[in-house]
Design goal:
Number of strands: 0
Radius of gyration: 23 Å
Number of helices: 22
Largest sheet: none
Helix content: over 70%
Distance between the termini: 21 Å
């Protein structure tokens, strides 16, 4: 048994052609996301029973301030290093390390001093929010101390090392967060779990790679990194405003409790689809970087990626919208029922986000990170027009509706047009890859919706019935569509499996 396990691991070590490395990397990244995000989701589900929505909202406010500082100071160090065509980037690492440490110190100092004013801005001047912000402010400082050579895990497609790096820190968060909550069920359980991730990664980064950084800075290297990162910085700022600006608005305009409902619904609705896409994106970014001089191969890779993403994201998002009324009371408890409608609405956002999330990796790989910033700027401007009246009228459900409306038009057509232009794929070729998953998901949704109308059962039974039944109906629909219209999804899956095993 041990020999078979070692042989399996040996086969999965990414080597061979770019396609083979990407395919094997995809297996590792799937395991990483399944274990790390799965453990995170499980922790949130457990803590939802022990903590209140307000506790999640308070931490949400603190993390929003940290995220803002990180985004506004992001110079894209890792992105720049991965994008480098040179295999050996050791000459960049010392400078990158010092840049990361300096950024961490800056964030920690600013947040520590600004914490009382931030708490007052969100109407929490007399709460423990100030102390929480000051504690999590040290997280980016810890992140800056990490061994910069961990970037090789992605650059060289060594995702088996990335697996250990990511999952170990995720398990630390899981056990620390739940362990703390069992002893003291307060918001500090969430804080402890969050900080444990950064602390464990510092240790792991030096255990997993033998490179040892030194405190030195090369001016030419520093200029090169900063010059590349100017668009990453701009894109990071606009990405924060469009992806978390709605959270900031809800926390300020409504309350921390409303933010707890909104963020929790947002996280659950978006996590399944977007995390799968994140697997694809983390693998395809270095792969696209290696294919940037081969337009035909790049176009084929994009269409193949789109097909694989769509076949998973569409049914997952449709299923989430369907099971929300039974999932929330059964899994989270009755105190979370106000988030059912936002969860259903945000499932549509999870779909749109999932099928476009990897586009940013394409832009970066093709040395056009400015596309991310420009598209995000349009998105922010559109959202700014509608979010206030929608939230004032319908609360967090109105906020969810606003971001979905902006995503549907004009952003989705613009995203598809931009990525198709860069990769020389016709927009209709990309949209065509969404056709069959849409049909299969509609069949699944309609069948189960009809079945729900015929059944008079408890929410628990409904939840247990819907998930496996939906998987069966969708799988049969996909197989039938592939057989009738020569879709090609079975061929693609066999190809991926063959590349992994080679």
């Amino acid at each position: 048994m041990r020999d078979r396990f070692r042989e399996l691991i040996k086969k999965l070590v990414p080597r061979g052609s770019v396609v083979q490395q990407a395919a094997k990397g995809g297996v590792w990244m799937t395991m990483i996301r399944f274990l790390s995000q799965g453990s995170y989701l499980l922790m949130l589900l457990v803590l939802a029973r022990l903590l209140s929505p307000r506790d999640f909202g308070i931490l949400g406010v603190a993390l929003l301030t940290l995220s803002a500082m990180k985004r506004f100071s992001d110079v894209g160090i890792n992105t720049a290093l991965v994008q480098q065509k040179a295999e050996d980037i050791d000459e960049y690492l010392n400078t990158a390390w010092m840049l990361a440490i300096g950024r961490g110190v800056l964030i920690a100092v600013v947040l520590f001093l600004a914490a009382p004013y931030i708490a007052r801005f969100f109407g929490e001047a007399n709460s423990e929010l100030t102390a929480i912000i000051r504690v999590i402010a040290f997280s980016p400082l810890l992140s800056g101390l990490q061994n910069p050579a961990v970037v090789y895990f992605q650059k060289d497609l060594e995702f088996h090392k990335e697996f250990v790096y990511q999952t170990t820190s995720s398990f630390a968060r899981f056990f620390v967060g739940i362990g703390y909550a069992l002893v003291s069920p307060t918001v500090w359980a969430l804080v402890a779990g969050f900080v444990s991730v950064s602390a464990s990664k510092v240790v792991l980064s030096y255990v997993l790679h033998d490179y040892r950084p030194r405190p030195s800075v090369d001016r030419e290297t520093l200029w090169e990194l900063v010059h590349f990162g100017k668009w990453i910085t701009g894109s990071s700022i606009t990405q924060f405003l469009h992806s978390e600006g709605d959270d900031v608005f809800v926390g300020w305009f409504l309350s921390a409790t409303a933010l707890g409902f909104y963020q929790y619904a947002h996280r659950i609705a978006d996590m399944p689809a977007s995390q799968f896409t994140a697997v694809i994106s983390s693998v395809t970014f270095p792969a696209y970087s290696k294919l940037q001089d081969d337009p035909a191969a790049l176009r084929d890779a994009l269409l193949g990626t789109t097909r694989l993403v769509a076949v998973v994201v569409f049914p997952v998002s449709a299923g989430m919208a369907l099971i929300a009324p039974s999932f929330v009371p059964v899994v989270l408890g009755e105190q979370w029922t106000p988030m059912i409608l936002p969860l259903q609405l945000l499932s549509v956002f999870g779909l749109l986000h999932g099928i476009t999330r990897y586009f940013g990796g394409v832009f970066n790989a093709l040395e056009r990170p400015d596309y991310n910033m420009k598209l995000d700027t349009i998105r922010i401007a559109c959202l700014a027009v509608v979010i206030w009246p929608a939230t004032a009228q319908w609360g967090v459900a109105g906020t969810a509706g606003a971001i979905i409306g902006v995503y549907l038009f004009p952003m989705f057509p613009l995203d598809v047009y931009a990525v198709s232009t860069l990769t020389r794929a016709h927009p209709l070729e990309i949209l065509h890859e969404y056709l069959y998953p849409t049909v299969g998901s509609a069949v699944m949704f309609g069948t189960l919706w009809y079945a729900h109308g015929l059944l008079d059962v408890t929410p628990l039974f409904e939840l247990l019935f819907t998930v496996p039944a939906g998987a069966v109906v969708y799988t049969l629909s996909v197989l039938l569509l592939d057989e009738l219209f020569s879709w090609g999804i079975k061929r693609d899956l066999r190809y991926v499996v063959a590349e992994v095993q080679s």
